[in-house]
């Protein structure tokens, strides 16, 4: 009993300490968000470049395809809502786009490091993180030039759809990428080879952050990678697993172990970057912990079995993916969505549903799973630099 009381007291004191930090820290007035990532945060990039995402994608919130690999909003959309900013338009989708409050350079299938051209892996985007940073650099240079040209004209008016040059250093820079580097590794490497590749992957990640810092970025919100072994798609062709292959929630242990190892190394890099970039605020958000918590307690949170997929036909070894048509036992089958996506964690076997994204964002943005443990609305403050 005495030990239990001590633990409760320690937790209470820790809560008071975190609360005291939050109370004395002014909220950040982020004028814009610049996002870099893969399909977990792509708001239309890959649809603009290749074939557009079709219904039933987008059906829950937008009521039409929105370029997102989801039935509705992504975590980056809920982040924008939290900061009272518009949803990010994709850099690739320039028609009618307003970039005053940021831009999204993420594309579905993106990796941190460029993939070997001799190895074709389906679903991987050519727009790796270094390309996304190069696009941002060009975006900043060209919009700044256009803004200044207009500003210097007699009787000019401010261009309402272009970012103000002074806003780049005040903006929030979000990074949600790395999952596909591991996914490619599972398909093309042994576990030992993939482990050996992680330092190089993180070298490329660190270089990207440093380049953004050189362009004036100061505040970074960095997501680690989620429990890949809990994606239903990881189990589609597994067959009957041997004892010990799956954990108590039905997730593929080897994939999750690799994700944990990657995340540990990523956190070490973030700490290293804090020392190298003294004027930057770098927040490490533990998305893995949030997603695994949701999967572990799906029923308590009002969701069905987390390994059940809302959109698509998945029975045994027969799979017709979301929004597509296929043959099953000689009959044509359409990969339709479920009756109520709000009850599902997995939208299409790879991506989370809007309901899950909202739950995860609510858990993450308050700072409970961040290092340092501060909310995203205060990520720019001085105490986040150490």
Helical amount: 25-40%
For CATH, the homologous superfamily is named as SGNH hydrolase
The biggest beta sheet is recorded as: 6 strands, mixed
Structural class: alpha/beta
Widest beta sheet: strand line-up: 2-1-3-4-5-10
Mean pLDDT: 90
CATH topology: Rossmann fold
CATH architecture: 3-Layer(aba) Sandwich
* Poorly predicted runs: 1-24
Continuous helix count: 9
The Cα radius of gyration reads 21 Å
Number of domains: 1
Question: What is the H/E string?
Answer: HEHHEHEHHEHEHEEEEHE
Keywords: Glycoprotein, Hydrolase, Signal
GO molecular function: hydrolase activity, acting on ester bonds
InterPro entries: GDSL, SGNH_hydro_sf, SGNH_plant_lipase-like
Signal peptide: 1-27
3D structure, described in words:
- The strands form three sheets. The protein has a six-stranded mixed sheet, covered by helices on one side. A two-stranded antiparallel sheet has the order 6-7. The protein has a two-stranded antiparallel sheet with strand order 8-9.
- It has a single domain (29-303, 349-385), classed as SGNH hydrolase (Rossmann fold).
- Helix 3 (75-82) crosses helix 9 (354-365), helix 6 (191-214) packs parallel to helix 7 (253-276) and helix 8 (287-296) packs across helix 9 (354-365).
- It contains nine helices and ten strands.
- Strand 6 (312-315) and strand 7 (318-321) form a beta hairpin.
- By secondary structure, it is an alpha/beta fold.
- GO terms for molecular function: hydrolase activity, acting on ester bonds.
């Amino acid at each position: 009993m005495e030990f239990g009381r001590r633990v409760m007291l320690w937790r209470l004191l820790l809560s008071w300490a975190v609360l005291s930090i939050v109370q004395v820290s002014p909220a950040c007035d982020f004028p814009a968000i610049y996002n870099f990532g893969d399909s977990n945060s792509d708001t239309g990039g890959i649809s603009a470049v290749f074939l557009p995402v079709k219904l039933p994608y987008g059906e829950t919130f937008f009521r039409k395809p929105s370029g997102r690999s989801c039935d509705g909003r992504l975590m980056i959309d809920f982040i924008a809502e939290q900061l009272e900013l518009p949803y990010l338009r994709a850099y690739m989708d320039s028609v009618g786009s307003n970039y005053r409050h940021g831009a999204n350079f993420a594309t579905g299938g993106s990796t941190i490091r460029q993939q070997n051209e001799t190895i074709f892996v389906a679903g991987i985007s050519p727009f790796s993180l270094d390309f996304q940073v190069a696009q941002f650099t060009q975006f900043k240079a060209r919009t700044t030039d256009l803004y200044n040209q207009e500003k210097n004209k007699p009787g000019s008016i401010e261009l309402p759809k272009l970012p103000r040059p002074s806003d780049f250093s005040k903006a929030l820079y979000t990074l949600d990428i790395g999952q596909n580097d591991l996914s490619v590794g599972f398909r093309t490497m042994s576990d030992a080879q993939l482990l050996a590749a992680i330092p190089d992957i993180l070298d490329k990640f660190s270089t990207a952050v440093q380049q953004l810092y050189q362009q004036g970025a100061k505040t970074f919100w960095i997501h680690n990678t989620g429990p890949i072994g809990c994606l239903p798609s990881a189990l589609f062709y597994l067959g009957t697993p041997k004892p010990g292959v799956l954990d108590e929630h039905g997730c593929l242990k080897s994939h999750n172990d690799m994700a944990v190892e990657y995340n540990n190394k990523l956190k070490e890099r973030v700490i290293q970057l804090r020392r190298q970039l003294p004027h930057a605020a770098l927040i490490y958000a533990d998305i893995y912990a949030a997603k695994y918590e949701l999967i572990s307690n799906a029923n308590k949170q009002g969701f069905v079995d987390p390994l059940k997929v809302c959109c698509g036909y998945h029975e045994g070894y027969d799979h017709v993916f979301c929004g597509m048509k296929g043959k099953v036992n000689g009959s044509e089958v359409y990969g339709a969505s479920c009756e109520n996506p709000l009850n599902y964690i997995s939208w299409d076997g790879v991506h989370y549903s809007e309901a899950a994204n909202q739950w995860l964002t609510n858990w993450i943005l308050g700072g409970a799973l961040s290092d340092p443990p501060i909310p995203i609305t205060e990520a720019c403050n001085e105490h986040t630099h150490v």
